[in-house]
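Thread: "does anyone have the structure for this chain?"

Original post by V.I.:
We have the sequence but no experimental structure in hand. Need at least a predicted one for the grant figures.
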Amino acid sequence: MTKKIQFMETVLRDGQQSQIATRMPTSDMLPILKTMDEAGYYALEMWGGATFDACLRFLNEDPWERLRLIRKEIKQAKLQMLLRGQNLLGYKNYADDVVAEFVKKSVANGIDVVRVFDALNDVRNLRTSVEACKEAGGHCQTAICYTTSDFHTVDYFVQLTKDMAALGADSLCIKDMAGVLTPGTGYELVSRIKDAVDLPLQVHTHATSGISEMTYLKVAEAGADIIDTAISSFAGGTSQPATESVAIALAGMGYDTGLDLDKLETIADHFNPVRDRFRKEGLLNPKVKDTEPKTLIYQVPGGMLSNLLSQLTEQGLADRYEEVLQEVPKVRADLGYPPLVTPLSQMVGTQALMNVISGERYKMVPKEIKDYVKGLYGKPPVAIKPEIVQLIIGDEVVSTVRPADLLAPELPGFESEIKKYARSMEDVLSYAVFPKQAEDFLGRREDPFYDVPVQNVTVTLAVE
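Reply from O.Q.:
Generated one for you, tokens below.
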């Protein structure tokens, strides 16, 4: 019997987000979409993550219109998006009415598969997204945020997938945003999940640490149904392994990938000059193509490593980079071992930076870290020690309820605030998630005298 494995192509979202901070305009995508649709992919990931922010802030594009334009061209492959659960595409929790409406409109405008995750693996924060996706007729894929600690065992992750299946997930994903899933653990984890839960299983990793191709080989052997890759133009480094290379390797081992290698070559031929243009313009930093084994030591996503170095360099403190890297796992342990994924990756990194720069741990604490310790992001994987709670928030009360239960409906307020410029509910939702950026975009669109220039392009590496 022929072994089958399917591929999801990430160049339209995570591939370009990881390497050029999501600055690829829709015009670079449209000419090649029909070929991509005919190449045999299971799905194209093309929305969510940082695409919304980048469209509005840097590209002067309507992200909803990008979705509709791509949907018109794609007839065979599924369109997939990434959603941060109750955070949607932002960095805070939104009320249930906003989350439900956003998911509903995403599916209505063309999304087939909604991959939803929570930065803390708090399944309570997935419930509204899962229910809304299924009600809208979409396919809801719930993702476990893979990370490592004494607490994050294979048993823990297997139980998490059982909880997600009980929630109503249509498929599951192992989301390894830092590229730290090793081949041996990947094989064990996939084998155990496939034995425990009768749902399709997709595996997502990054090439940052240099082991991703080996990991994909082992998860394929263990029975993974789908893997995420990026066309070679935007592959490697902080992105995913190259689609063509992995497909050729697996085909040579007897796997049916369903991919047309000639069409993959055509796709690469299209994106190679796009990559070269970004490289020439300085938007493609050579560092994002590097292999960074320290990722395996510090468990820090590649984009986060680069962000920390950039922040320290700006302050003339680049020589303290190693100190900050060593502080990151200590802060993460103090905070109950949260997975380093947006927004927790940025929060933990900033706290580590502050601890080193101030010379005293937790002398300076951002509001987001205080809110996290108060339980306003969800339940930490491991209970935070009382002395750390006291150090960060004193005697303030720690909430134990689902964070969104503390939020009143927000949609009517957003509708009222942006009614001057909004033509549709999609416009309102853009404003809900990115108020300043959306108001500037919608204002320019609706009012010829609304004089706010598109922001200068500065490259900051996005972290999922």
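V.I.: this helps a lot. The chain has a mean pLDDT of 93.
O.Q.: and Strands lie at 3-4, 6-9, 43-48, 78-83, 113-117, 139-145, 171-175, 201-204, 226-229, 255-256.
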